[in-house]
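Hi U.,

Before I forget, here's the chain from the pilot set. I'm dumping it here mostly so it's searchable later in email.
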Amino acid sequence: MSVLKKMHYANVVLKSMIKIISEKHEKKYLYSVFLSEVARTLPHAVLTLILFDKGVRVEQIALVQIFYMLAMVAFEFPSGLMSDILDRKLVYLLSIVFSMIAYVLIFFSNALPMLYLSWFIYGTASAFNNGTLDVSFTKLFQTNTEKLKQFLSRQKMVLSVSAVLGGYLGSILFNNIGTYLFFVSVAIYVVSATVVIIFIPSDRNNERLGKPFREYLANFMLNLKNLISSRILIELIILMGAIQFFYQPFYQYWQAMFLENSINPSVFGFIYIIFRLAFALAAWIFRKVKHSNKNSYIILAMISALAVATFLVDFPSFLLVSTPLMLVLVYIYNLNLDCCLREQTDASVLGTVESINSTFTRILSVIVLGISSVSVTLFSVTTMFVILVVGFTSISIFILYIRGRKK
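Structure:
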């Protein structure tokens, strides 16, 4: 047998020995996602209260979050490359480790610099979490739109249910053990990581077997260059980034906005559950309804109308109706863009493209948070929120209109 044939034979044997992620591993992955999201969201329903207890002022909330976004910008692209080229399982586990470190540091933080560091590490964890094992399953379903939508819907519904449970348990734990709830999060993170280590095989890039790394990297970068020069891809990334004009002011200031409108903080846990159920409802609707550009115009117009109504209606409880409705609409709109991005992108570089998308999103997030921090010193929190939401819908409608004309 010639040397070349021996090398080829060894390469085939090596590939056959490697366990590959398949549909049967999806359930185990979702178990891990469920546990990880419960751990992550335990403090979320009371996070503003925790920050206030640590001496953070309302205008400093956005500054703390900016350090989270800076970490995302710094590590999103490198983590995407690691995920696509090396091992998605390893990168996913690293995100859990960084999350645990961040939560321990937040517990011990008693000054702004320490909180900045904690949120920077927390942002690093989020950067390493994007475009990892979820991409492995996207590769399995990418040629079947219905299966891809079902996977995305199941993933989002698991995230929603786990976040509801995490937010509810967190509000109860905070009332009983205070910030020690962060250690409960760490314990749940350990279980989540254990599920992945034991039950999900490594997702190394098997395409590199028998191929020099330099050659593979050159081909990888060429494919990536071709993809990011795509007009459709650029438009999708801009549209997804623009949603931060809604997400950032909402998630960072909803508790402050509700306090401003005389809503008792004792119901924040219940309100958080409603918000997460809105996410689950949106995932279900997305799975059942076929989306189109015309629907996007209607959704964006409805979001804008609800935001303006929130400002005009002088009735505090109206927030309990308008904000969940806005969330459902924004989530549906975002899920459709996410599905389009995954369908348009080659699976071999999907993790990196997701990272580019997320990096652009985080840069916009830092800008939006800076605008928010300045705006709350000039306007009420509610006014700031409404202005930015109307800005988001206006930008998105304009881009969709330009897209339609080009087509």
